[in-house]
Amino acid sequence: MCDTYIVGSARGRSKTASISLVGIVNSFPCIFGVFVTGLTQNVEELLKSDTARLMLANSEFLILLNQASTDREELAALLNISENQLSYITNVSVGSGLIRCSGNIVPFENTFPKNTDLYKLMTTKPGES
Fold this sequence. Notes:
- The chain is an alpha+beta fold.
- The chain is built from seven helices and three strands; from the N terminus they run ααααβααββα.
- A three-stranded antiparallel sheet has the order 1-2-3, with no helix packed on it.
- A hairpin with a 2-residue loop joins β2 and β3.
- α1 packs across α2 (about 15-30).
């Protein structure tokens, strides 16, 4: 799943696309034993879609990184994130955030020394690999 697919649905472009995505997300784990994975850098667009909000609320596993203030408020209400927990996605450094798994929310910090081969393999910053 990609955020572009949902963004089209969020803006009312394709009700059919929205319905088919929900069908895939709901059916594939039961029928094929697989899980649907999504990734987005634009949570604001997702939060505009009732379908996407439902999928986020029902997701078994989420990783939340630094979020804009308006997005944090919406996510807090949708996912029952406390004020204290919000501090882990408010103006935080790279590699910090919240993990939500089975309704449990846990903060994390995952930093790597930049002078290692492992960092060079994992970095997504141009010029650092």
